[in-house]
């Protein structure tokens, strides 16, 4: 790389001297027609061009050669460096001074222009890097952006960026390049807290200049700041997740412990009474105690099932086993099972006979209707109506479960399906606060949408279910299908 640079520099000197030789030959041909002063002025033109294109060194060398050729070929006596007339000596001295001064001025101007251009390019590259790194929080993306920007600075070459930490990795450009055992430059990526990695660089055409080295060190500093920002963001996110997890655990333990205490107390009291034979086994009281144990065991089983379903929803493991089902049959099954718990309310069902089949998981949809009806039973006053209705709309079926319970403030409607979230009657209603969250998870797993709204005489849950399933045609619903 160093040899190629020297060859390029020597060629510039040779081209400069060659150009002066060509100009000298042309002026020599026209020597009889041109005045000595005009020849001196014409010599200044190539000197300026040489300094402008090839720099101060070739320019001054060309000025010295021009001084000699001007004296040798154009000052009498010709073909000798001797000068007989004092005026010619003055002219030669002035010519040499002017030639050197022009070469220096043009050379410095070119150097200043190159420096300004280089600074502008560096500022632009730093700005582009800063903009590209803004908002990135992934370490591999940061390393990739940094590598591409470095490749533009080096105009090719091989780049290897190593990032240390919990998940260390190395990125290379080009990707087929093996690890660099002897790079031209190694730039550490570090902050005040310590090293984060390093950049190993190898330039293709020539050695890395001091200006490029300074720019690459600035790139390393920008990359270190971006990496530190990403790690701080990750730490903040982990801390936030842990805090939310702790809060959820506290809420869950509080809700579940409160919810478990009542059925366990009932089961314990009933079992103790039967064990101590305080109640005769053949008496009606024993039947009531056994029924209480059975009901509270079902309650506990429901609570544990809700917790398991919620964990499956959050982990993404809830996969509906879809089949073409009749919605009215699902509703009828749920209401038959809940007829005793709903004996203080009036249940009304309005489902059209021509309602099409829906591709759903039968068991999961039973749970949705059970949770929505149970919620309505908990919050609606006794001796009020709970109504279930549905209708087909384009390629979905819309279902509504409404009750005559208290309305919910509008600002809380969006959060009503959050875990453990309650709005009204929380002091008199039991439950862990997971039922509506489970409904939302099941409906969304089916590709539907669920929401709540206030209606004229109460409150309603609405949800939609798609009527299409992977393009499969819908079976025809048998006629005269009704809920008994």
CATH homologous superfamily descriptor of the domain at 323-466: Histidine kinase-like ATPase, C-terminal domain
| CATH architectural label of the domain at 323-466 | 2-Layer Sandwich
- Helical content stands at 55-70%
Number of strands: 11
Main sheet, how many strands, which sense, barrel? 5 strands, mixed
Order of helices and strands: HHHHHEEEEHHEHEEHEEHEE
Regions with pLDDT < 50 over 5+ consecutive residues? 479-484
- Examine the coordinates and then state which fold CATH places here, giving the name of the CATH topology of the domain at 323-466: Heat Shock Protein 90
Could you tell me how far the N terminus lies from the C terminus, measured between alpha carbons in angstroms?
92 Å
CATH uppermost class of the domain at 323-466:
Alpha Beta
Helix tally equals: 10
What is the 3D shape? rod-shaped
The SS-based structural class is alpha+beta
The side-by-side strand order for the widest beta sheet comes to 6-8-9-11-10
β-sheet strand percentage: 5-15%
Query: Mean pLDDT score, rounded?
Result: 78
The gyration radius over C-alpha positions equals 45 Å
Characterize this entry briefly.
This protein is α+β, with helices and mostly antiparallel strands and 484 residues long. The protein has ten helices and eleven strands.
Describe it for me?
This protein is an alpha+beta fold and 484 residues long. Among the domains are: 2-116, no CATH class; 244-315, Helix Hairpins; 323-466, Histidine kinase-like ATPase, C-terminal domain (Heat Shock Protein 90). It contains 10 helices and 11 strands. The protein has helices at residues 2-29, 36-54, 56-74, 86-133, 139-154, 210-275, 284-315, 327-337, 362-379, 435-445; strands at residues 158-163, 169-173, 185-191, 194-202, 323-325, 346-350, 358-360, 385-393, 396-403, 449-455, 458-466. A hairpin with a 2-residue loop joins β10 (449-455) and β11 (458-466). α3 packs antiparallel against α4 and α7 packs across α10 (435-445). 24% of the residues are buried.
């Amino acid at each position: 790389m160093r040899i190629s640079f020297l060859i390029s520099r020597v060629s510039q000197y040779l081209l400069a001297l060659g150009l002066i030789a060509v100009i000298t030959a042309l002026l020599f041909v026209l020597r009889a027609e041109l005045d000595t002063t005009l020849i001196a002025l014409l010599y200044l033109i190539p000197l300026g061009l040489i300094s402008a294109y090839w720099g101060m060194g070739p320019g001054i060398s060309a000025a010295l050669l021009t001084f000699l050729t001007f004296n040798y070929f154009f000052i009498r006596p010709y073909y000798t460096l001797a000068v007989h007339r004092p005026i010619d000596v003055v002219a030669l001295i002035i010519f040499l001074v002017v030639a050197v001064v022009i070469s220096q001025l043009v050379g410095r101007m070119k150097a200043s222009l190159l420096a300004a251009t280089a600074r502008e390019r560096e500022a632009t590259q730093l700005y582009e890097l800063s903009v590209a790194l803004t908002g990135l929080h992934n370490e591999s993306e940061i390393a990739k952006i940094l590598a591409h920007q470095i490749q533009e600075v080096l105009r090719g070459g091989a780049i290897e960026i190593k990032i240390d930490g919990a998940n260390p990795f190395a990125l290379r450009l080009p990707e087929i390049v093996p690890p660099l055992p002897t790079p031209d430059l190694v730039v550490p990526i570090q902050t005040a807290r310590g090293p984060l990695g390093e950049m190993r660089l190898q330039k293709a055409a020539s050695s890395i200049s001091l200006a490029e080295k300074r720019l690459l060190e600035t790139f390393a500093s920008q990359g270190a700041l971006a990496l530190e920002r990403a790690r701080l963001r990750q730490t903040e996110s982990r801390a936030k997740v842990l805090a939310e997890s702790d809060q959820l655990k506290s809420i869950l333990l509080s809700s579940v412990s409160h919810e478990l205490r009542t059925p366990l107390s009932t089961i314990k009291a009933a079992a103790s009474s039967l064990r101590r034979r305080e109640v005769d086994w053949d008496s009606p009281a024993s039947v009531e105690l056994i029924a209480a144990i059975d009901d509270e065991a079902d309650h506990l089983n429901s609570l544990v099932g809700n917790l398991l379903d919620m964990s499956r929803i959050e982990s993404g493991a809830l996969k509906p086993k879809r089949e073409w089902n009749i919605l009215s049959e699902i509703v009828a099954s749920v209401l038959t099972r809940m007829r005793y718990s709903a004996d203080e309310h009036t249940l009304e069902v309005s489902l059209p006979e021509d309602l099409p089949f829906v591709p759903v998981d039968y068991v999961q949809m039973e749970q949705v209707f059970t949770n929505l009806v149970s919620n309505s039973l908990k919050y609606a006053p006794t001796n009020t109506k709970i109504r279930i209705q549905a209708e087909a709309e384009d390629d979905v079926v819309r279902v509504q479960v409404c009750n005559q319970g208290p309305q919910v403030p509008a600002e809380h409607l969006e959060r009503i399906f959050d875990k453990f979230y309650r709005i009204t009657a929380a002091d008199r209603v039991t439950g862990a606060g997971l039922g509506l969250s489970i409904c939302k998870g099941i409906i969304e797993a089916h590709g539907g949408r669920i929401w709540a709204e206030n209606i004229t005489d109460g409150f309603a849950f609405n949800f939609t279910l798609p009527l299409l399933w992977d393009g499969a045609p819908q079976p025809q619903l048998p006629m005269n299908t009704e809920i008994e």
